[in-house]
Design goal:
With 172 residues, this protein is mostly helical. The chain is built from five helices and two strands, in the order E-H-H-E-H-H-H.
Protein backbone atom coordinates (compact mmCIF):
# COMPACT_ATOMS: atom_id res chain seq x y z
CA UNK A 1 0.00 0.00 0.00
CA UNK A 2 2.52 2.63 1.09
CA UNK A 3 6.11 2.60 2.17
CA UNK A 4 5.07 4.06 5.53
CA UNK A 5 3.51 1.64 7.94
CA UNK A 6 2.63 4.34 10.47
CA UNK A 7 1.09 7.73 9.72
CA UNK A 8 0.15 10.83 11.71
CA UNK A 9 -3.44 11.42 12.76
CA UNK A 10 -3.83 14.17 10.13
CA UNK A 11 -2.52 11.88 7.40
CA UNK A 12 -4.74 9.05 8.62
CA UNK A 13 -7.80 11.31 8.48
CA UNK A 14 -6.94 12.28 4.89
CA UNK A 15 -6.36 8.63 3.93
CA UNK A 16 -9.82 7.58 5.09
CA UNK A 17 -11.55 10.78 3.93
CA UNK A 18 -12.80 12.10 7.28
CA UNK A 19 -12.17 15.15 9.42
CA UNK A 20 -9.67 14.87 12.28
CA UNK A 21 -12.47 15.32 14.84
CA UNK A 22 -14.32 12.39 13.25
CA UNK A 23 -11.15 10.29 13.35
CA UNK A 24 -10.74 11.04 17.10
CA UNK A 25 -14.33 9.92 17.67
CA UNK A 26 -13.73 6.73 15.66
CA UNK A 27 -10.58 6.03 17.70
CA UNK A 28 -12.73 6.00 20.84
CA UNK A 29 -15.80 4.26 19.34
CA UNK A 30 -14.13 1.69 17.07
CA UNK A 31 -11.10 0.96 19.17
CA UNK A 32 -8.43 2.10 16.71
CA UNK A 33 -5.03 1.49 18.23
CA UNK A 34 -2.68 4.46 18.42
CA UNK A 35 1.12 4.06 18.68
CA UNK A 36 3.18 6.62 20.56
CA UNK A 37 -0.02 7.77 22.25
CA UNK A 38 1.73 9.64 25.05
CA UNK A 39 3.93 11.70 22.70
CA UNK A 40 3.25 14.97 20.92
CA UNK A 41 3.00 13.11 17.62
CA UNK A 42 0.92 9.95 17.98
CA UNK A 43 0.87 7.57 15.01
CA UNK A 44 -1.62 5.08 13.61
CA UNK A 45 -0.56 1.89 11.86
CA UNK A 46 -1.97 1.73 8.31
CA UNK A 47 -3.11 -1.84 8.98
CA UNK A 48 -5.42 -0.46 11.72
CA UNK A 49 -6.97 1.89 9.20
CA UNK A 50 -7.50 -0.98 6.75
CA UNK A 51 -9.03 -3.11 9.55
CA UNK A 52 -11.59 -0.38 10.43
CA UNK A 53 -12.23 1.36 7.09
CA UNK A 54 -11.47 -1.40 4.55
CA UNK A 55 -11.58 -0.27 0.90
CA UNK A 56 -12.09 3.38 1.84
CA UNK A 57 -8.40 3.76 2.72
CA UNK A 58 -6.36 5.60 0.08
CA UNK A 59 -2.63 5.96 -0.03
CA UNK A 60 -0.92 9.31 0.44
CA UNK A 61 0.28 9.03 -3.18
CA UNK A 62 -3.32 8.66 -4.40
CA UNK A 63 -4.33 11.71 -2.38
CA UNK A 64 -1.47 13.74 -3.92
CA UNK A 65 -2.43 12.59 -7.43
CA UNK A 66 -6.03 13.64 -6.80
CA UNK A 67 -4.82 17.08 -5.62
CA UNK A 68 -2.68 17.49 -8.74
CA UNK A 69 -5.56 16.43 -10.98
CA UNK A 70 -7.85 18.90 -9.20
CA UNK A 71 -5.29 21.68 -9.65
CA UNK A 72 -4.95 20.89 -13.33
CA UNK A 73 -8.72 21.10 -13.84
CA UNK A 74 -8.98 24.42 -12.04
CA UNK A 75 -7.97 26.50 -15.04
CA UNK A 76 -10.75 24.81 -16.99
CA UNK A 77 -13.22 25.42 -14.19
CA UNK A 78 -11.89 28.97 -13.93
CA UNK A 79 -12.49 29.40 -17.64
CA UNK A 80 -15.95 27.92 -17.21
CA UNK A 81 -16.62 30.36 -14.39
CA UNK A 82 -15.50 33.27 -16.55
CA UNK A 83 -17.73 32.05 -19.37
CA UNK A 84 -20.65 31.66 -16.96
CA UNK A 85 -19.99 35.15 -15.57
CA UNK A 86 -19.92 36.58 -19.09
CA UNK A 87 -23.14 34.76 -19.95
CA UNK A 88 -24.81 36.07 -16.79
CA UNK A 89 -23.64 39.62 -17.53
CA UNK A 90 -25.06 39.40 -21.05
CA UNK A 91 -28.31 38.01 -19.69
CA UNK A 92 -28.42 40.81 -17.13
CA UNK A 93 -27.84 43.41 -19.86
CA UNK A 94 -30.59 41.85 -21.98
CA UNK A 95 -33.00 41.83 -19.04
CA UNK A 96 -32.16 45.47 -18.22
CA UNK A 97 -32.85 46.44 -21.85
CA UNK A 98 -36.08 44.46 -21.80
CA UNK A 99 -37.06 46.15 -18.55
CA UNK A 100 -36.27 49.60 -19.97
CA UNK A 101 -38.25 48.86 -23.15
CA UNK A 102 -41.21 47.65 -21.11
CA UNK A 103 -40.96 50.68 -18.81
CA UNK A 104 -40.91 53.05 -21.81
CA UNK A 105 -43.88 51.27 -23.39
CA UNK A 106 -45.86 51.48 -20.17
CA UNK A 107 -44.97 55.16 -19.70
CA UNK A 108 -46.22 55.82 -23.24
CA UNK A 109 -49.45 53.97 -22.47
CA UNK A 110 -49.90 55.95 -19.25
CA UNK A 111 -49.32 59.19 -21.17
CA UNK A 112 -51.80 58.15 -23.85
CA UNK A 113 -54.40 57.22 -21.22
CA UNK A 114 -53.86 60.56 -19.45
CA UNK A 115 -54.38 62.38 -22.76
CA UNK A 116 -57.55 60.37 -23.43
CA UNK A 117 -58.81 61.13 -19.93
CA UNK A 118 -58.08 64.84 -20.30
CA UNK A 119 -59.83 64.86 -23.70
CA UNK A 120 -62.83 63.13 -22.15
CA UNK A 121 -62.89 65.64 -19.29
CA UNK A 122 -62.69 68.54 -21.75
CA UNK A 123 -65.55 67.08 -23.80
CA UNK A 124 -67.64 66.69 -20.64
CA UNK A 125 -66.91 70.29 -19.61
CA UNK A 126 -67.85 71.50 -23.10
CA UNK A 127 -71.04 69.45 -23.10
CA UNK A 128 -71.95 70.65 -19.61
CA UNK A 129 -71.22 74.24 -20.63
CA UNK A 130 -73.39 73.91 -23.72
CA UNK A 131 -76.25 72.46 -21.71
CA UNK A 132 -75.86 75.18 -19.08
CA UNK A 133 -75.59 77.90 -21.72
CA UNK A 134 -78.70 76.65 -23.54
CA UNK A 135 -80.72 76.82 -20.36
CA UNK A 136 -79.30 80.21 -19.54
CA UNK A 137 -79.87 81.39 -23.12
CA UNK A 138 -83.54 80.45 -22.92
CA UNK A 139 -83.79 82.18 -19.58
CA UNK A 140 -81.92 85.20 -20.94
CA UNK A 141 -84.12 85.37 -24.01
CA UNK A 142 -87.19 85.19 -21.82
CA UNK A 143 -85.77 87.93 -19.58
CA UNK A 144 -84.91 90.06 -22.62
CA UNK A 145 -88.41 89.58 -23.98
CA UNK A 146 -89.94 90.67 -20.65
CA UNK A 147 -87.56 93.64 -20.52
CA UNK A 148 -88.45 94.66 -24.07
CA UNK A 149 -92.13 94.45 -23.29
CA UNK A 150 -91.62 96.66 -20.23
CA UNK A 151 -89.60 99.09 -22.27
CA UNK A 152 -92.23 99.12 -24.99
CA UNK A 153 -94.93 99.77 -22.42
CA UNK A 154 -92.82 102.52 -20.86
CA UNK A 155 -92.20 104.10 -24.27
CA UNK A 156 -95.85 104.17 -25.10
CA UNK A 157 -96.60 106.07 -21.94
CA UNK A 158 -93.62 108.42 -22.39
CA UNK A 159 -93.81 111.65 -24.29
CA UNK A 160 -92.54 112.40 -27.79
CA UNK A 161 -89.23 113.80 -26.57
CA UNK A 162 -88.59 110.67 -24.47
CA UNK A 163 -89.53 108.43 -27.35
CA UNK A 164 -87.16 110.14 -29.77
CA UNK A 165 -84.20 110.46 -27.43
CA UNK A 166 -84.93 107.41 -25.24
CA UNK A 167 -85.43 109.31 -21.99
CA UNK A 168 -88.16 108.40 -19.65
CA UNK A 169 -89.75 110.76 -17.22
CA UNK A 170 -89.21 110.17 -13.64
CA UNK A 171 -92.41 110.01 -11.82
CA UNK A 172 -92.55 111.99 -8.70
Amino acid sequence: MTAQSKVSLSQAAKMVGVQRSTLYRHIKEKGITIDDENTNRPKIDVSELIRVYGNKVRTLEQIEQNKKAANQTQPDSSLEKEFELLRLREKNTYLEQLHQTEKTRLEEQVGMLKDMLETERAERRTTAALLTDQRNEKDRQAEKLVALERENTAMKSAGLFARVFGFARKSA
